[in-house]
Design a protein that fits this description.
TIM Barrel; 15 helices; eight-stranded parallel β-sheet; single chain
């Protein structure tokens, strides 16, 4: 498969480290941590791919796999695996989300983990030329206090470990972005990028659109993860376009989680036609068996993405990198 734009390296801004756990690595971790039966529950009978189901099944799968990512060595190995996936996929630069909120919940010390991730990123850059940076994130439904703990851990790791931004994920219905406005004001004041999952499920309707507004207006997000709920609101699309907020679109992931029924239903065209900066991403690449070249191919085939539009999206991702906002 060729790249969507000749000579232009791919950029991934929305991919989760934990969602990039390869099946064989899961098997190894389950054996290492004394949970051999867990891998069989998560994987297809031949062990080559993850079992697929509805969104509830996806959340259970995510809980299962993160339960065996425990030590700095585990994270180091996972990051090296991801670096090789990027190389094979033609991705030259990636900002990778890491759930520091989950680490803290599982009583895993973030400092040694981020040191291990920094080592893996340096090794990947040296051996393959692929650059990886880190976007730690908090889990919104666990509350603002836990969000502050996650930010403090991320800030302590800092630029020395390749941290370039801070994010917010989780259940939008039980963790309004506006609650975290003061936290993200501090994140921005420290010169880090702000990227927030918002409007991921169109079925949330106005609540999903309000989630996007809060992320942008209250928290000053420069990037929105998914953002599908915004597509049906011309005023909200205009807000995103006017403020230059980049929307990290993940079409095939949205189908896999049941956020949309068919790829043809994805509102990519609404964002492009409204002049909203946006780019394509895999989200949870190995859990769903995705790659970024495949995202561009699928958008071309099912959503009518033209070659110059694909090039524009890659350039948008280059310009929206959080590492461009950081200062020494």
């Amino acid at each position: 498969m060729t790249k969507p734009a000749a000579g232009l390296p791919l950029v991934e801004l929305h991919t989760h480290l934990e969602g990039s756990l390869m099946p064989q690595r899961l098997i190894d971790l389950c054996e290492r941590h004394g949970r051999p039966g867990l891998a069989a529950r998560c994987l297809t009978p031949d062990g080559s791919a993850y079992r697929q189901g509805d969104f509830a099944a996806f959340l259970e799968l995510y809980r299962d796999i993160t339960s065996v990512i425990r030590t700095p060595a585990d994270f180091h190995a996972l990051a090296l695996d991801l670096g090789r996936q990027f190389l094979d996929d033609g991705v030259g630069f990636a900002e990778v989300s890491v759930s520091v909120g989950v680490m803290l919940k599982r009583e895993i010390a973030p400092g040694p983990v981020f040191a291990a991730l920094a080592e893996a990123a340096a090794e990947t850059a040296e051996t393959s030329g692929v650059t990886m940076r880190w976007i730690p994130d908090a889990v919104r439904q666990w509350g603002v206090d836990e969000g502050w703990r996650a930010w403090e851990a991320a800030h302590a790791a800092g630029r020395a470990c390749g941290v370039v931004g801070f994010g917010l994920g989780g259940d939008e219905a039980h963790g309004p972005a506006a609650d975290f406005a003061t936290l993200f004001a501090v994140v921005k004041a420290e010169g880090y990028g702000v990227t927030i999952h918002a409007g991921e499920v169109p079925a949330m309707g106005e609540a999903g659109r309000e989630s996007v507004r809060q992320a942008v207006i209250d928290c000053g997000a420069r990037r929105i993860g998914h953002g599908l709920a915004a597509a049906g609101d011309p005023g909200l699309l205009a807000l995103l376009a006017d403020r230059g907020v980049c929307v990290e679109l993940c079409p095939r992931s949205n189908v896999a989680t049941g956020g949309i029924a068919r790829l043809e239903d994805h509102p990519l065209r609404a964002f492009l036609d409204a002049g909203v900066p946006c780019c394509l991403n895999t989200d949870d690449r190995t859990l769903f068996g995705l790659d970024l070249q495949g995202e561009y191919a699928a958008a071309r085939e099912s959503l009518g993405l033209a070659g110059e539009e694909a090039e524009g999206m890659i350039n948008c991702a280059l310009k929206a990198r959080s590492d461009l906002e950081t200062t020494d």
